[in-house]
Amino acid sequence: MSKKYKQFISNKGKIYIGVGITAAILFLVLLINLPIQGTNSKEVLFEIKEGASLSQIALDLKKSNLVQSATLFKWVSLLTGKDKRFRSGQYLIKGKVSLAKLIGLFEQGKIILLQFTIPEGLRMKEIFAKIRAAGLANTSKYEVLSTDQTFIKTLGIPIPVTTLEGFLFPETYMFSKNSSEKVVLRKMVRTFFQNLPMDFKTRASKLNLSFYDAITLASIIEKETGKNSERKLISSVFHNRLRIKMPLQTDPTVIYGIKNFNGNLTRKHLRTKTPYNTYIISGFPPTPISNPGIDSLAAAISPIKSDYLFFVGTGEGKHKFSAEYKDHKKAVVKYQRKRRKNYRSY
C-alpha cells in the first residue's frame, strides 16, 4: 500500500469521525430543543431532595408527569453535563415545560426560597418557632446547636459563650427549604456581626463594660422599650445604676429566668433567687435575654448623659423617668392607678 493511499485513508477516517461527532452534536442539540414535555398542565411544586441521584430525580419527574421519559431526561442531562450543576430545593414548574427548559431551570438553581422575618427582641425559642413556621427543618437541632460548644466555636464569636442567645440578628431571611440548621444559624450570627456598630468592643470598654455584657445590656434595653427615642435614656439608667453598684432591677431578666412563665409577674418571683433575678443579684445575668436589633446595640454603648435611676411604664408604650426614688414612687402610684382605671373602662 502506497504512502499516499495510506494518507488518503487516514484523512478519510478523520473526516468520517468529524462528521460523526458533528452529527451527534446536531442530534443532541435537536433532541434538547424538541418540545418533549410531560402531560402535567398545572403548576407543580417539584423538589430535588438533598443528595438525590440523577436517576431518582428523573423517576420523580416521571411520577409527577413532568417528563415523558425518565431515561431521556437522564441521558440528555448526562450528555450535556448539566446534571453536575443541579441544585437541591423546591422548584415551581409552570405547566408543560420542554426538556431543555426543565434542565435549564435545575441547572440555574432557580429554587423557591422560604422567607421569614425575625423582629427585634425575640428569644431564641421564639425565633426557632418562626423558622419552623416558615417551613424550614422542623427538628430539635436548633435548640441543640444553639448551646453546642463545638458548633459555636466555628462561628467566629470572639469570646467564649455558652449560648447563641443575643447573637441571632433580627432581619428578614430567605433560605431554601433544604437549608440545614447549621446553615441558618451561621447566617444569622454572621448577619449579627455585619450589623454590629463599629468599634463596639472598644466603646463598651470605655464604659467599663465587657463585650458580652454590652450585648446583654442591649438585650435588656430591647425588652424594656419599643420606642427608639427612649433606648438611650433607658441605657443611661442602667449605666447610672451600675456606676453606683445598684442592682439593675429589671423585670425582663426576672421573667427570662422563670420556667414556663404564664405572663403574671408576682412579688414572689421578684424575691426568688435565680441567676437572672437582677433584683437580687448584682451586675448582669449570665447571658443575654433576647436578640437585640441595631438600635438597642447602639444604645448600650452610647447612653444619654442623665441623672436618672428609675423609670416606670406610663401605659402608652412610654416611660416616666426619675432621678429620685420619692419621685419614682409618685410616678408608680400615678401610672399604676391610670392603668387600673384604663383596664376597668376597657
Task: Note the gap between the termini.
Answer: 111 Å
How many helices? 15
> How is the main sheet built?
2 strands, antiparallel
Strand order of the largest sheet: 1-2
**Total count of strands:** 6
Low-confidence stretches: 340-346
Structural class: mainly alpha
Order of helices and strands: HEHHEHEHHHEHHHHHHHEEH
Helix content: 40-55%
Q: What is the percentage of strand-forming residues?
A: 5-15%
Indicate the radius of gyration in whole angstroms: 31 Å
Shape: elongated
Average pLDDT value?
Answer: 87
Total number of distinct structural domains: 3
Give a verbal description of the structure.
The termini are far apart. Residues 340-346 have low confidence and may be disordered. The protein has 3 domains: 35-111, Endolytic murein transglycosylase (Dna Ligase, domain 1, 2-Layer Sandwich); 113-195, no CATH class; 200-306, no CATH class. The protein has helices at residues 3-33, 54-63, 70-80, 99-108, 124-133, 141-145, 149-152, 181-195, 200-206, 211-224, 228-243, 251-256, 267-271, 294-300, 325-345, and strands at 43-48, 89-94, 113-117, 172-176, 310-313, 319-322. Helix 10 (211-224) packs across helix 11 (228-243). The strands form 3 sheets. A two-stranded antiparallel sheet has the order 1-2. Strands 3-4 form a two-stranded antiparallel sheet. Strands 5-6 form a two-stranded antiparallel ribbon. It is mainly alpha-helical.
Question: Topology of this structure?
Answer:
Elements: H1 3-33, E1 43-48, H2 54-63, H3 70-80, E2 89-94, H4 99-108, E3 113-117, H5 124-133, H6 141-145, H7 149-152, E4 172-176, H8 181-195, H9 200-206, H10 211-224, H11 228-243, H12 251-256, H13 267-271, H14 294-300, E5 310-313, E6 319-322, H15 325-345
Antiparallel strand pairs: 1-2, 3-4, 5-6
